Amino acid sequence: MTRVCPICGRTSEEVPFIGSLCRDCYVRHVGVARLPGRIRFVYCKYCGSYKYQGGWNRGLETVEETLIEYAHIVLSRKLRPTRDIEEAWIEDIRLDKPFTGPGSYKLLVRVAGRSREGVEARQDIVVEVRADASVCPLCTAKRTERGYDAIVQIRGSTGRLGEQFRVEVRRFLDRIDRQLRDAIIKEEEGREGIDLYVADQTSAKLIASKLRAFFMAKTIDTYKLVGRRPDGKRRGRLTISVRIPEIEPGQVVKVGGRESLFLGWTRRGGLFVDLRSGRKFELDAESLWDRGFTPHPGGEQEGRYMLISRSGGTYVFLDADSNYQKVVEYPESYVHVYTDNLEEGGVYKVFRVGRHIYILGRSSGAQA
Questions:
Q1: Ordered mean pLDDT values, 10 residues apiece, the chain (368 residues)
Q2: Domain 302-362 CATH assignment equals 3.40.30.10
Q3: pTM greater than 0.70
Q4: Shortest CA distance to 71 belongs to which of 135, 131, 136, 137?
Q5: Nearest to 99 by CA among 137, 37, 170, 43
């Protein structure tokens, strides 16, 4: 049956209808959906996070992007389809002008909907937004250097963290998730190591867990009562001691009393070679600390060799520690290479165990 729009006179054979009106008249006189005429947007002027439902949430790359994302969330929840629209949604949101800071802006919101008969319609609605700058609790804590609930103390296995491992820890902290990074209120470096003051205990535990996994570290948690919260609940401060084993790939370490070559980190922990048996084995952090480990003190088992030739199943070296005056030969089956680009004329760190020799890496002085 042909329908006639009572407003414009067009028929259902000419244009789609929504209810008793043609689509254009329905959008013009009824609308696709209802939205609030005004919303408020509160953002942190330092980090760009925004306030929503009583809490603070991390923002996007720019405050303008965050504002549009926030408006999409709020307006989607408040969107109400009109009488003959079965389903409605927001297709696009734009600002009427570039975001320059606190003030009033207009949001150009395009809504779309679908009637019970499957006819789609679109409508442009203007919503005013008031943007107000504030300071989130985390930035307040950072700027006052107060308000932390946890401390992560990073130390070396012997008590003091060496400079090389301090550099590695800083690189590691630069790579962690932004949310965890933002939770660190301040960092302090002292003679013993690095202290991280963290806003909340959950973030501190996650940071310590990542340090533990990456460096095969040992962690110890301690709690201390520091007062009461405004609601009367006791407030405790968590301190996590993170001990990093100061060992490097290519270094000989005594693990459980046996000399082992540390090859490097794996997803589960660290990979070693038992220098007595030649057997490779993998240890997680807990097993490494349970067995006990100490860097090998060196001595006559360690040296520097220059490779002269490797042919006929024999490796020929000059002993660099004897001023290159002593020639040393090893059968190929007794030479174990743990370095890339083994070249004639190169000087390498070596470790001797019985009749076997382990080539660990380049040493200073490439030529005699």
A1: 91 93 96 96 93 91 95 96 95 94 95 94 96 90 80 89 90 89 90 92 93 88 74 76 86 86 81 85 88 76 90 92 92 88 90 84 62
A2: no
A3: no
A4: 131
A5: 43
